[in-house]
Each structure stands twice: as structure tokens, then as C-alpha cells.
Amino acid sequence: MGKKVTPYKDSKLSKKKQVEQMFDNISDNYDGLNRVISLGTDVKWRKKVVTTVSATKPQSILDIATGTGDLAIQMAQTNATRIVGLDLSEGMLKVGRRKISDKNLDSRIEMIQGDSENLPFEDNSFDAITVAFGVRNFENLDKGLEEIYRVLKPGGIFVVLETSVPTKFPYKQGYRLYSNFILPVIGKIFSKDKVAYSYLSESAANFPYGNAFNNILEKIGFIDVKDMPQTFGVSTIYIASK
């Protein structure tokens, strides 16, 4: 992985605590701002994740870094009898719980505060595990992935949706312009946390995407690893098994 990127460069807190603080700060307007920043394409990407997971007919699903629960809520379309959303930020979870209640899904989706690097579950607990735009926020990427591997059932599916960097002209240049200049400005205008969206942009640029991330997954022990770039490569869906 590239250099260590944290939200608040002058803070003495760990990256984990900084990420928790940042998402608590932006939780109230996170959903709306996300739709604007991604031009709505994040909704389409999540649908592909749901379709991929649904095809395996899971009975239990864990969505890590669930945030306000968008992906966990969409997973209700599957026949899973147990759906758990886990996140560091209680502020994000509160928003998610309201959304779940509004959709009358309280009996199907449980939202819990927890650490991806120390999951509160037994070995081999879930048929499917997902992470959408969250693995780049892990303080220790290997440790987080090892925990995911531990609680995933043998034969289970692991799907990651994460930002990546386009490699072809002109998408590469356009992405850099948007992520380095436009996205942080939008974040500063509409978010009360003025550094959050600069961090999200910088952390995306430093994440080991594509084959680099595939290699990390295989090193942890995952099998049948593959990646599927989305929308000219601005995000990538990774699929693996145990």
C-alpha cells in the first residue's frame, strides 16, 4: 500500500479513531453528498454487488463499513435471513437505523458498532461478506482482511466495492482533475468537516487497486479472486471466495 493517509494530519489519534470521528462529523449529509459527488453511479455499482451476492443464495450476510446502511438495505432483496451491518461510526449507524425503520426492515437488518480488525463473530459465521468504499479506511489492511477471512464460511463469497484510478487517457486525467480539485471543493462547501472529502480523495488515490489488491487477497488466503473495473475504472468490484 502507498503512504499512510489519515483524515486529520495534525491529530495524534490513531487512523481508526480519526476515521470514526470524521464519519461521525459528516453522517448527517453523507448520503446526499455522496449521490452528488458520484453523479449517482454509486447506486448502480451497489446493485451489481447485490446481484453478485444474491446469485450465491446466502442465508447470512455481513456488510462491513456499512455506513448509513445503503448496501445492507439493498441486501434485503436477497433471501438472506440474517443481515448485519457493522461500522466504527455510531453517527453513521444512527442514520442507517432510521432508514431501516422507515423501510420496516428492523426484523431483518441489525446494525452494530464494531471494528473490522476485531470482528465480534465466531469463525465461519457468514455466507457472504461485503465492503463498499471501506477497505481503504482500514488502519491495518491485512488485519482487516484476515478477520474477514476468519468469519467467512468455507465456500462463502467476499465482495469489495472500492474506488480505483483509471489508467487510460483521457479518463485518468479527468479523474485526477475531479478528485484532486473538484471533489474537495464540493466537500468543503456542503460538509461541516472541511477535510473529510480531501481525505477520501487522497485515500482513494493511495489504495492498491486492481492486481495489487488481488495479490493481497490471495496472500491472505482467498481463492478465485477477480476484479471488475466499473465506469472507466473509477471504481472496481473485487470478488473472492474461501
From TrEMBL:
Q: Does the keyword Magnesium apply?
A: no
The reply on keyword Methyltransferase is: yes
Q: In which pathway does it act?
A: Quinol/quinone metabolism; menaquinone biosynthesis; menaquinol from 1,4-dihydroxy-2-naphthoate: step 2/2
GO: which molecular function terms? demethylmenaquinone methyltransferase activity
Show the catalytic activity: a 2-demethylmenaquinol + S-adenosyl-L-methionine = a menaquinol + S-adenosyl-L-homocysteine + H(+)
**Biological process (GO) annotations?**
menaquinone biosynthetic process; methylation
EC main class here is transferase
Tell me, in a sentence or two, what this protein's role is: Methyltransferase required for the conversion of demethylmenaquinol (DMKH2) to menaquinol (MKH2).
* Classification via NCBIfam families: MenG_MenH_UbiE, PRK00216.1-5
Q: What is this protein called?
A: Demethylmenaquinone methyltransferase
Whichever gene encodes this chain, its name is ubiE
